[in-house]
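Records of this kind hold a single protein each, on a pair of labelled lines. Below, a sample record shows both lines together.
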Amino acid sequence: MYTNEKRQTIYTDEEQAYTRLEHETEGSKSSSATSEADARSPLRRKRMLLASIALVIGIVAAWFAPNSVLYESTDDAQIDGHIMRLSTRINGQVEQVKAVEGQLVHAGDVLAVIEPTEYEIAVHRALARLAYAENNAASLYLTAAIATTTAYGSLNSAQAAVKNAAGEKEAANKLLQADQAVLEQLSAQDGRRQLVEAAVAQDQQEMLRVQGKLQQAAADLRTAQTAPQQVSLAEAQAHAADSQILQGKAELEQAQLNLTSTIIRSPVTAIVGKRRVEIGQNVTAGQEVIDIVSLDDVWIMANFKETQLDHLRPGQPVDIKVDAYGRTWKGHVTNLGGGTGSVFSTMPLKNASGNRMKVVQLVPVRIDFDRSQDQTFNAEGLLKPGLSVEPDVRVRLLPRSNTPNTLPGSRAQLRDQ
């Protein structure tokens, strides 16, 4: 007979054995399932990898496909601009150089100074010559006025003297004729005849004196009648003095201009590119002293392949990415150039052998920056000539045209497309 304790022990051992059997069975099943999962895992990973690659390709295609249709771009582009080579207008020795390469300068800033003493002396000398010319002219004008008054006064006096002498001659002639008539009426025995003869002789003497006076008055009149010529001569001398004043003023202006030219200023806001002189160096007129690069007058010169020109037009909007800053500026196509770059090279390629190899040509396209009306363009001086850029021109599919520089529509219309 088994006791209750023995029965409980037997039941417990049987339960433990059954539990171990169940665990072993589940373990074998789990091992089998794991083996099947491990067999299917590479296939699943391969399918997931292919699906991921397809998704990435789809995203990339969705991104670049519209860009390839809507945009034309090139990485062969750079900022271009005018390099101003400032030169001297005078000869002299450099006294100061205030420009440093790479310095930002504004319009009117002093870049260099030429020793001014010689040109200051020239200004003082020109002032003295001008003052002398003005005083000389004033004196000659006064002389001309006096000569005019004297000449016409002498003419009037001579005319009056001639008139008076003519009157005296006429009176003397009448008196002589009257006395001669009385003398003819008297007989030789008349005692009054001697008196009359004496009167006639006296009348004749007076007549000769009056005739001499009239001749002198006539000569004086002829001299006085040159009054207009005398006045013209005096006025001509005065006018000649005026020309000396004008010459003196011109010399003074030239001297002042030379003095002003001793200071070389920047004509625009720019970056100093290169200084070519040092303090103490002697320079001559026309010698280049400093190169500056205007910050306001810059643009993009982009080389597009000839196969890209089909849909490029002036006015099309452009996104301009500057490599140096990673920033983007807005611009627009200005023109498509006048020919390929090889045509304008110093030694254009000429094929005379007849075995020419076809090469895709590059055409320079000018792109100008859009400039805000209420801001100073490029005030920070970031856009410097020579920096590399990547322009993206927003184009639209257009039919081929024989006039690629013809603008099909406004820039606003092109942006809206």
